Amino acid sequence: MESFTFSALFWLILGVALMLIEMALPGFVIFFFGVGALVVSGAVLLGLEDVNIQMLIFIFVSLLTLIIFRKKGKKYFEGKVSGRNQTDESIENIIGQKARTITDIIPGEINGKVEFHGTNWNAVSDEKIEKDSVCVILSRDNLTLKVKKI
Question: What pTM was computed for the model?
Fold first, then answer.
């Protein structure tokens, strides 16, 4: 009876841990393996002894719930910043905005950083800009902003 209890406890802890890990990782996949582990924990408490069958149930239930419920449940786990999608047009509205340098920006080097609306961005400039200076955003190339000192 002790091996049943230990095995059930193992599956229970694994299931809860996988569900908690899902909160830290994107994708909404690991959650379903947590569900599979909880189902196996219940099966062990009902008398299932064979470890091979436990593994088969774990894989089967995990994949089945993943296939059936992932698409429906993913919307509850997605982060939403605003009620609308950002488009290139709204991203380009940053041109002309002010940012603060958080490192020295040296011409020809790509390791400059600026803070814009609480987010750190890579920054380049044609002129040297000292740390903690205010600058204006001239353009954006992916995650790098071209800036100039005000």
Answer: 0.50
